[in-house]
Amino acid sequence: MLLLTIVAAAVVAYLCSTTVSYYVDFLWFGALFQLPAWELLTGCLTILAAMVCAVAAAFVGITAVARVLTPRRIVANPTRPLRGLAIGVAALLLTVAARVYFGRFERLFEDHAIFSGVDYTQAHITLGSLLVVCGALVVGAAIALTAAMRTPRFTWIVSSVVSAAVCNASSWCGT
Question: Across the chain, what does the average pLDDT equal?
Answer without folding.
Answer: 76
